[in-house]
Amino acid sequence: MSEFVIEIHRMTKTYGEGDIAVHALTELDLQVERGEFVAIMGPSGSGKSTLMNIIGCLDRATSGLYILDGEDVSQMNRDQLASVRNRKVGFVFQSYNLLPRLSARKNVMLPMMYNGFQNWSEEKRSDRAAELLELVGLGDRLHHLPTELSGGQQQRVAIARALINDPSLILADEPTGNLDTRSSAEIMAIFHRLHQQGATIVMVTHEHDRALEAQRTVNVLDGRVVSPESEMDRLVVS
Ligand SMILES: Nc1ncnc2c1ncn2[C@@H]1O[C@H](COP(=O)(O)OP(=O)(O)OP(=O)(O)O)[C@@H](O)[C@H]1O
Ligand SMILES: [Mg+2]
Question: What distance in angstroms lies between residue 176's CA and the mean position of ligand 1's atoms?
């Protein structure tokens, strides 16, 4: 198995065409090793979510090479990408994206409908969901609806849901962006635990303190990765 979970070379992403074209990513390079915990920082509009969506196979790059967990996904069509995503990626968003009418447990079970769990009985799926909810400290909230949970608890349900396929890569786009300090710390504690158990995690954050908790920070500026030194150069030059 490759030592890298993410290998990106000269990735570009352009939204729209002609006069209204937005060059969200411009020849971006990034490599993430298996088992790494990486924070991504950068100003609003610098391309962080665009990058995360492509890393998570929710969207396609315009050009460039992307190898995910040893598999070249650059040329894949949407169906193929969806299949890779279901097998390899767990995605956590700033907004928890839970279905309001479903209990915590049913929300976690949802991805199992189309995810290689077809042979599992309802009972087995339900047990697995409960197990994951216990893992994120919500063993006593299985039957609560999202509206009956705090923001931090809802995000923990979303994390449990993201873990259902035992992903090789956990992606989190500002997972603590809507949370107070205490709930944020709880979410970070879960990520730390998953990391210690061997997960590869890439997390976008606006908060320096959160980024410092990761092993490494990647800075994105104008659609590419900049090293802290080159940012310094820019400041000195301008
Ligand atoms: N679907 C889209 N269509 C057109 N332009 C888009 C689309 N999504 C993003 N963009 C543009 O691409 C650029 C990068 O956006 P992106 O959402 O990746 O930034 P970001 O770094 O995540 O910002 P933030 O910190 O505010 O979340 C922005 O200029 C944005 O306006
Ligand atoms: Mg964003």
Answer: 19
Distance 160 CA to ligand 2 centre (A): 22
Per the structure, the complete domain to which residue 110 belongs is given by 4-237
Say how many CA atoms lie within 13 Å of 3 toward its Cβ: 1
Confidence tier at 237 by pLDDT (50, 70, 90): low
**What pLDDT band is residue 25 in, cutting at 50, 70 and 90?**
very high
pLDDT at 91 over 70: yes
Q: What's the pLDDT score for residue 114?
A: 73
DSSP letters spanning 149-189? S-HHHHHHHHHHHHTTT--SEEEEESTTTTS-HHHHHHHHH
Domain count, the chain: 1
**Does ligand 1 lie within 6 Å of residue 146's CB atom?**
no
